[in-house]
Every structure is written in C-alpha cells, then in structure tokens.
Amino acid sequence: MNDFELKWLAFEITPRCNLNCIHCRTNASMNLKDKLSFEDITNTVDEISKEFKPVVVLTGGEPLLRGDLFDIADFIKSKGMRVGIATNGTLVNEDTAKKIKEHFDVASLSIDGSQSSIHDNFRGVKGAFDATINAASMFKKVGLNFIINSSFTKRNQHDIENTYKLAKKIGAGAWYMFMIVPTGRGEEISDELILKEDYQKILKWHFYMELEEKDIFVRPTCAPEYYALCDMEAKKNNIDFTRRNLKFSTGGAKGCIAGQKIAFIGYDGEVKPCSYFLRSAGNILKNSFVDIWHNSKIFKDMRDFQNYNKKCAACRYINVCGGCRARADAYYGDYMAIDPYCFV
After folding, report:
1. How far apart are the first and last CA of the chain?
2. Rounded to an integer, what distance in angstroms lies between the CA atom of residue 21 and that of residue 72?
3. Pick from 71, 217, 94: which is nearest to 144 by CA?
4. Contact by Cβ (8 Å): 295, 271
5. Which positions ≥6 away from 179 have C-beta within 8 Å?
6. Against a cut of 0.90, is the pTM above it?
7. What's the rounded Cα separation, in Å, for the pair 58 and 63?
8. Cβ burial 214-243 (10 Å sphere, 16+ → b, else e)
9. Mind listing the pLDDT tens digit for each residue in 80-112?
C-alpha cells in the first residue's frame, strides 16, 4: 500500500455561514452561494472510494445550511466510509441532533473560550457560545460522539486551560487545540497570532497535561513541533510517553500530514493539502481528485521531505514534525520554507 494513503478528507460543501469568525479561512458569510452541486460532490466521493476509504468530514461555512446535507452523508456511508460533520452548533436543537446521529458517525463543535464573552467575541455573534453549549448537551442526550475544536490567538490564549476543562466537562470525546495559520479572514488578525515563545510554552503545557489526561483524547493541531517537543521533554525528564489514538483521527502519528494522509476540498472545488493551505493543487470541477492527489506538484512536494528547506531536511525530527507547510507559505511565500514557529 502506498505510504501516502488518504485517511481523512475535509469536504467544504458550502461557504454560507451564520457566524462571522475572526479567523475564518473561507471568509464565509450568508451572502455567498454554493458552487458544488450534489452530483459534483457525490461523483468525487465515488471516485475516491474506489481507491481510498478516508473519514470524510463535511464542513463549511455551516454545513447545516445545505438542504442536501443528509443525502450527501448517506451517499458517503454507502461507499463504505465513515462520515463526520463540523458544525458551529448554533443551528442544533434536539430534533437536529437526532437527525445528525442517524446520518453521521461523529460531530465536531467549535468552542474558542470557556465563557460567552470570549467565544462570542471570537465568533462575531452574540449568543453563539450558549447555542454551541446547548448543541453539546443535545449531542450528549442523543448519544452522538462529539469532538471540540478550539482556535487560539493572543485574544484568547489566556483561556486555553479553561477551554480544555470545559470540553472535558461537557462530555467531548476529544479536544483539539488549533494554532491558527493566517489564511482567509485570519490574515486580517496576523498581528494577533500567538508569539513563537508563547507557542513553545503552550505546547509544553499541553505535553504535561496530556501525560495526566486519561479521560479524553487531546491533541494540538497545526502545531507539528509538538511531536518533536514530546520526544525532547520525555528524554530530558526520563518520561515514558505513549500517545493514544482516536478512531476518527487523521491516521498519522506525525506533526504535519498535509497532502500525505489528509486533504481538503473547498466549496469552489479547489483541492489543497489542508484547510489552511493558501495554494490550490487542482480543482475537482476540472480534474479528478485522485489524479490531483497522486500527480499534482504541491502534493508531491509535501511528500518529498529531503527537498524541504535545509534545516528541516537535515533535522532528526523531519519524519515526526515536518514543520507547518501552510504557515511557512503564509509567512514567507514558500511552502517548502522553514516553519516560522520552529524552535527545535
């Protein structure tokens, strides 16, 4: 089997959204229109299923705004793949939660702070926090596994530990701590991005928290240096560190697996190694996804570790870290450059 097997695919089925998040990669809004038809989506899923069986996460925008959402989910399942939904939770009531449970294997909710003042400020809509907490309780009530994704900048980094504790308290199966890459609307807050020195401290906090955490699965996202830090801290302090895996995880015990195990398809059909990546490797409206996955220059570059910048290529952690290619591109205009957050 090819080392670079697609294990996890984020499929952005709509750019429409009822929130106005400061970091949105899509610049999503209710003014935008869907570009991919049901057939565009299902034809791509059908083609992928003939070679790979990834977990497919339907995302947006807000996927619940799309009328054929549940039909798309059913089609994905009919092809032998597991399917998840990434929702902001604000449109979820008990009936919706039951329907999601019937059609999806897992859901993710976004919570960017432990209280409404922090989360609502981040999401740009008052009442978003209460609605998302309500969605979590509805998911719990109907017995649907759910994950909490939390994104952080300087404006909410002080609340990271409290947000993790909240995710645990409301019954999430996993908590993912996202280190924002400045793409989409996120470019407008580039001066708000977490400082490199704080980034290392936060990852160190996460390592020691993860050592003690036995109830839920935790992992930093868009923070490939974490994998190097875990090894460095464990060796320095003679700690036996074994990482647990989640059945809906991306299938890689490595930092950056963009274009190696995961991919992203945007609402306009553009295919990228990950959702934060600036450049398109091709478009499913013009080429087949599988052809793009195997043959596009960007995807091939993602897998050619020895052609990364000299520091990465020579680093002993190249196979467990790899640096964030999207962040390198956002900062330096070169996705093969050094990750600006590298501290190894």
Report:
1. 32
2. 26
3. 94
4. no
5. 152, 194, 199, 202, 220, 221, 222, 223, 341
6. yes
7. 7
8. eebbbbbbbbbbbbbbbbbbeeeeeeeeee
9. 999 999 999 999 999 999 999 999 999 999 999
